[in-house]
């Protein structure tokens, strides 16, 4: 499998984290752990599916995936290719007026939000491009055409910064108080633009920090450092996030 990453141009950098083009010469399955970004996938060739409740579900040609709390296994058939747009944590809200929270744990066709005729033209243009650089340029042209809001919510930006700075170990009541806003108003405002509640978002950040920690000295230390009171609770959350027990995962971590 070949994964090539591209950086967005300056105009889109506040909203887009990166683009990836994934090309698979063989049948393969990727273990994808949750992160705090929406993802938009354009299938370029072949067949791509994911496992849901022990059954294979084929992805739409153009799929928008919300934030998740659970691992996902993506299967690429031989000679499959896809272009993935990873948004910044508030980035998707710059392109759509609809509240994003309904997309939590969901993957939907993009034609729920964009007219099918518009998407058909984008697919046609992508198919005409002779190389990946041109495909990325085509994608950026499309994204710029649907950009509607260039101003981020600065209160949510500050909240995201505080969540990251504590590795997700923060009480939402205290976070709202630090931002001088009621907890109820804060939660509504936060999930409208990030697609997750502050608690869900913090849990994703926390677990992501844990799985990216190289060679933890002690699993018990991880448990208590991250606010858990017992190992069974930690193990349950960890397996939901990665599909593996902590012991098995850290023996040979392989994910993206």
From TrEMBL:
GO molecular function: DNA-binding transcription factor activity; sequence-specific DNA binding
NAD in keyword set: no
UniProtKB keywords: DNA-binding, Transcription, Transcription regulation
Residues in HTH araC/xylS-type domain copies: 154-252
A Pfam family reported for this protein in Swiss-Prot or TrEMBL: DUF6597
UniProt key word Transcription regulation: yes
SMART domains, per database record: HTH_ARAC
InterPro entries in the record: AraC_XylS_family_regulators (IPR050204), DUF6597 (IPR046532), HTH_AraC (IPR018060)
Superkingdom in the source lineage: Bacteria
Name by which UniProt lists this protein: Helix-turn-helix domain-containing protein AraC type
Natural source organism: Sphingobacterium sp. (strain 21)
